Every structure is written in C-alpha cells, then in structure tokens.
Amino acid sequence: MYYLGIDIGSSATKLIAIDDNEKIIGRSVIQLGTGTSGVPAAVKAFYENSGLKSSDIAYTVATGYGRQNFAQADVEVSEISCHARGIHHLLPDVRTIIDIGGQDTKAIQISSRGTIQQFTMNDKCAAGTGRFLDVMSKVLDVGLDKLGEVDAQHTEISPISNTCTVFAESEVISKLSAGTPIPNVLAGIHQAVARRVAGLTLRNGIKPDIALTGGVAQNKGIIRALEQELNCTLIIPPDPQITGALGAAFIAREKYLQQTIL
Fold first, then answer.
1. What is the C-alpha separation between 144 and 242, in angstroms, rounded?
2. Is 36 left (phi over 0), alpha (psi -120 to 50) or beta?
3. Beta-carbon neighbour count of residue 46 at 10 Å?
4. What is the average per-residue pLDDT within 122-140?
5. pLDDT in tens, 78-112
6. Where are the beta strands (DSSP E) in the chain?
7. pTM of the full structure
8. Does domain 1-91+240-262 have CATH number 3.30.420.40?
C-alpha cells in the first residue's frame, strides 16, 4: 500500500508518498503553487518521477493553502496538523515549530507525543512571509535561491523600518539609490522579516528544541537573522519545504488503517 500527502502552497506544490513501512517511495516539489495548471503539473511530475500510478495510492491527504484544489484527495487536513506530524517524525525532540510559507507564517507548539498544544498565525499582511521576500528579491534583482548567499556578504545591517510590503519596497529602492550595498540592504530585509516572525513566535513563548520549516528555511540569511532575534539555535530539517507533505502522507496512512479496522 502507498499513501500520498500533497501540500499545495501559494508558491509551490509538494507531494510525498510512503509505504506501509513509512519509507518515502516518491516525492516531487514544483514551484507552481495553487494555480489551476500548477497542481496537475505537479501531480504529473510526481508520478513520472516516482514510477507510481494513481491506482497505487490507497489514501490521499491534501493540505496547504490550496488544498481544496485537489479533488482526488480522500480528506483535507490543516497544514498545522501536517507540519506537527512531519516534524515529530523527523525531529522528535522538537517542541516549537516555526513555519514560514509563501502566504503565511505559523508558530506551533507540540507535546512530546507530537500533539498540537497551541499555535499562532500571522494576519493577512505579507510581511514576515515568503511573499515579502519574493517582492524584495525582484527589487534587488537577486534570485530567491541566492538571497542567503548575498546576505553572507554584508558588512553591516541597513535596517528596514517599514513592515508594510509597499512602503518597505519604496524604502529599499531609496537605500539602493543612495548607494547602500545590496548585501547590507538584504541583511536589513532579513532582519525585518525575522523581527516579525519572532514577535509572532514569542506570543505563546518558546519551548526548545525549535525547528524552522517551509521553503524560506532554505534561506541562510533568514536563519541567521531569526536566530539573532530569538537568541537561540534553530534546527532545520533535511528538506524543510516538504515537511507538510510528509506529515500529510503519515496522516493518510493512519486514516487508511483506521478505516480498514472499522
């Protein structure tokens, strides 16, 4: 039996299939998000890469910002539950999860059994999310995958005082026009995001160990800035972007077994 988890985010769609031994059989990450053409393309790539067929899947759980866009799912589950399940499997000592997605940011506290104790989400503002970084990367003309590398070259942090994406964009343009080096401006951008995320996380307090998940967790500049704001060391799972899909796959297996027992 194979069990599929699909995490449909605002900027990427992630799929993972596991077997009865909880071994990952196939996976796919496509930067297409929730668009009507994005999800089918991601699913097609998954089956081509894994060698599986849709008929091989016993149960499917959909999660993420666009989970309603996958009609083939047996059930939809919140990304909070899926991230908790995925992290508890990968890093059982983690008690606080910070997930920075393309559209929102979540701080989740879990117990030693992996159950959710409390969580906090950001408001509808893009500040403190991957969307904010996406806008800033275009202003700086630096690819998203290069932000951490360029940040590492900063000699000082040029603070960004505005948290609103529109005003922050204008502030960044002004700094660049004044001759401030791009790495210094970028370090300020990362600091602004980190402060927003830290404020969200600290609302419920922090229990170690602390893990950072989501596509933004691949950005070493964000890791540096957030560790400074929280005064702690963050644990980054091997592939932080697929944590939600992995948790969804585990939940799919559990729900299928419950169904068969009943």
1. 17
2. alpha
3. 24
4. 88
5. 999 999 999 999 999 999 999 998 888 999 999 99
6. 2-8, 13-19, 24-30, 57-63, 75-76, 96-100, 105-110, 116-121, 210-213
7. 0.93
8. yes
